[in-house]
Design goal:
The chain folds into 2 domains: 2-245 and 447-470, Aldehyde Dehydrogenase, Chain A, domain 1, CATH 3.40.605.10; 250-432, Aldehyde Dehydrogenase, Chain A, domain 2 (3-Layer(aba) Sandwich), CATH 3.40.309. Helix content is 40%, strand content 21%. The protein contains 15 helices and 23 strands. The longest helix has 23 residues, at 96-118. The structure holds NADPH dihydro-nicotinamide-adenine-dinucleotide phosphate (NDP).
């Protein structure tokens, strides 16, 4: 049983003033594996004060000093990559494939940001003006449970690169992962107060941060509903916000797609991170004249997406993070049937042979209309909809008929055609024939998928304020 009873303030571990506790579970076994003591408003005050004290000196550090810090952070996190991976498997239930991507990425995001910084010009001339990009001030980061390390590290890396100090509130459901990661970050020996980490509930610690007078910038990843609440809270003091929210990504299979390649990739994009991913391609758009063939192939290929014990290397879908998430996903599987969609694979309950753990059967719905709730709302589990379309124009229309706009996928054998379709899609990222990743390119959403962009220069500038000097 792990007892997490520390938060990180002003360069050291400290006991929270808050006394409330939350249980921690292994979602694959439903067993309690730990308990976390949560911070409160007073802990937020202390953390923000530490970040505020550190800001003047840190904001004046040179580019070379910050690059050096980013390299130290990378080294400190990479050193314990195996432990990070184990904790992610135990506390979150991430299967092998996702762990292999996520654990090394916790360290590599610091190198990506160091690379961005190397060529970034903080001062430039525009006509008669000298423009200086200055750190925005003390930042707050609020992160979810579906990729704890990735979100904490990428937001911290950006703050460090910008010369901003930061207070981070991770999801309390990830407290064991956060504890190991914080120990790594501590080992990088950054100046006291540059980063501070406070476990706590969103409604307590998160809310106190988003309305705090000394926070100038908020960076948030999570649900659109919470993003909306944060935007409102931030508006009082005109805080800068970056919001990376939900998605209902279209996965367009054009009628000329090579189905041998497209079908497994479309499923992989839909079931990424056990379906608990904002970028999951959850609406598979299939041409009506190839619908039967595509559905038959999808129903067959889904067999390769085994759900179960995350330690099993053949497992591609782990458990849902919590009982609450499991119930939520089950309720959507019920809802889909009530709405008139047909189950092509999966359904309610646990996968065959699994009698405990918050596992969901990988589920495919056919006969889905884009106005059904299962096609419009983010389910955040391994549940995909197949939606038929008449022609290319209709496919684009359905793809864009959503409140979201984070990511989209297009499969076609004709590269020019795929690009033409991609250009019509209202999404922050469009992936053609796969799900390639570019860590330096901007990431974020159109419409209700968010505000602003993360990563690379775009992410860095979201932590900076331009100041124009005219002499
Ligand atoms: P939330 O958006 O509620 O949680 C994300 C983070 O925000 C957590 O750290 C949470 O803290 C915090 N938070 C919650 N309320 C507030 C608030 N008022 N002010 C400041 N911070 C707050 O997501 P859930 O965990 O409830 O998941 C619900 C749904 O959200 C999922 O099913 C999925 O659809 C979507 N989601 C999307 C994610 C994405 O990557 N885009 C990530 C996670 C969820 P606490 O944990 O204490 O509530």
């Amino acid at each position: 049983m792990r007892i997490i009873d520390q938060i990180y303030i002003g360069g050291g571990f400290d006991r929270p003033h808050g006394s409330e506790e939350a249980p921690l579970f292994n979602p694959a076994t439903e067993q309690q594996i730990g308990v976390v003591r949560l911070g409160d408003e007073e802990d937020v005050e202390r953390a923000v004060a530490a970040a505020k004290r550190a800001f003047p000196a840190f904001s004046r550090t040179s580019k070379a000093e910050r690059i050096d810090m980013l390299h130290r952070l990378n080294a400190a996190v990479s050193r314990r990559a195996d432990e990070l991976a184990d904790a992610m498997r135990e506390e979150y239930g991430a299967p092998q494939g996702f762990v292999k991507f996520a654990a090394p990425r916790a360290g590599s995001v610091f190198l990506d940001m160091a690379k961005t910084l190397e060529t970034y010009e903080f001062r430039r001339r525009i006509g008669r003006a000298e423009v200086e990009m200055r750190p925005a001030g003390v930042a707050a980061a609020i992160t979810p449970w579906n990729s704890n390390y990735g979100f904490i590290c990428s937001k911290l890396a950006t703050a460090v690169a910008a010369g901003a100090t930061i207070v981070i509130k991770p999801s309390e459901m990830s407290a064991i992962q956060t504890q190991i990661l914080t120990e790594c970050l501590h080992d990088a020996n950054l100046p006291a107060g540059v980063f501070n980490i406070v476990n706590g509930y969103g409604g307590v610690v998160g809310a106190a941060l988003t309305s705090h007078r000394d926070i100038a910038k908020i960076t948030f990843t999570g649900s659109t509903a919470t993003g909306r609440a944060i935007l409102q809270a931030a508006s009082g003091a005109m805080k800068r916000v970056t919001l990376e929210l939900g998605g209902k990504s279209p996965n367009i299979i054009l009628d000329d797609a090579d189905l041998d390649a497209a079908i497994p990739q479309a499923l992989a994009a839909g079931f990424i991170n056990s379906g608990q991913a904002c970028i999951a391609g959850t609406r598979i758009l299939a041409p009506a004249d190839r619908l039967d063939e595509i559905q038959a192939r999808l129903a067959k290929a889904i067999g390769a997406f085994k759900a179960g014990d995350p330690h099993d290397p053949e497992v591609r879908i782990g458990p849902m993070v919590s009982r609450k998430q499991w119930d939520r996903v089950q309720s959507y599987i019920r809802l889909g049937q009530e709405e008139g969609a047909k189950l092509l694979a999966g359904g309610e309950g646990r996968p065959e042979g699994v009698d405990r753990g918050w596992f969901v059967r990988p589920t495919l719905f056919s006969d889905v209309c884009n106005d059904m709730r299962i096609a419009r709302e983010e389910i955040f589990g391994p549940v995909l909809c197949i939606i038929p379309y008449r022609d290319e124009k209709h496919a684009i229309e359905i793809a864009n008929d959503t409140d979201y706009g984070l990511q989209a996928y297009v499969f076609s054998s004709d590269h020019k055609r795929a690009r033409r379709v991609a250009e019509e899609l209202e999404a922050g990222r469009v992936a053609i024939n796969g799900a390639a990743h570019e860590p330096l390119a901007p990431f974020g959403g159109f419409k209700q998928s968010g505000i602003g962009r993360e990563f690379g220069v775009f992410g860095l500038e979201a932590f900076l304020e331009p100041r124009t000097l005219l002499v």
